[in-house]
Write a structure and sequence with these properties.
By secondary structure, this protein is an all-alpha fold. It contains nine helices and no strands.
């Protein structure tokens, strides 16, 4: 074993092999770090406890089928104005949210006004020539107060040079675009 013969690879091949293994090692480290961060993020989201949003009551999907069916019929019959016929679809989630909130809270326990105004309200709500103010004037003082306190679109504080923003901005927009239908 003492012939003095030592086999060595050509220097270029050895350097190339080392560079390749360094690149593989770097890629493996990067993949491992990325997977650890991803796992940490998923774990954080899974373990995070967030308070439920109660603006929509218990949620439209949790209402009894009869209430959901009533809403489906009303959402077709109320949107009769030629310029608003598709608003019920455009703002479907927002209107379902408000309906679910009213059902869940039973409108704050306010007494039904159906006997005293059903005919006037039905006529106003199904006529596309009647504006929202005529419907608004059919509300009792207690109903007006309850609506203003409970409709989930209150204005948020902002600097004077900033645009006005509302909590649940889509709810605010739905109210402004289809105010009469929302009130009905």
């Amino acid at each position: 074993a003492g012939s003095g013969w030592v086999h060595t690879a050509p220097t270029g091949h050895l350097i190339h092999a080392m560079q390749r293994s360094s690149k593989c090692l770097a890629a493996l480290v990067l993949a491992t770090v990325t997977n650890i961060r991803l796992a940490a993020a998923v774990s954080l989201r899974a373990g995070a406890h967030q308070e439920p949003d109660v603006a929509c009551g218990k949620g439209f999907e949790n209402l009894v089928k009869g209430s959901q069916d009533y809403y489906a019929t009303a959402s077709v019959k109320l949107w009769t104005h030629p310029s608003h016929r598709m608003d019920n679809a455009t703002f479907e989630k927002e209107f379902q949210c408000w309906f679910a909130s009213m059902c869940t809270t039973k409108c704050g326990g306010l007494p039904s006004q159906a006997e005293g105004r059903k005919e006037k309200l039905t006529k106003a709500c199904t006529s596309w020539t009647t504006d929202w103010l005529k419907v608004w004037k059919l509300f009792s003082t207690e109903e007006l107060r309850w609506f203003k306190q409970n409709y989930p679109a209150e204005e948020q504080e902002a600097d004077a040079d900033e645009a006005t923003v509302h909590y649940k901005m889509a709810m605010h927009t739905a109210k402004e675009v289809s105010k009469k239908e929302l009130l009905c």
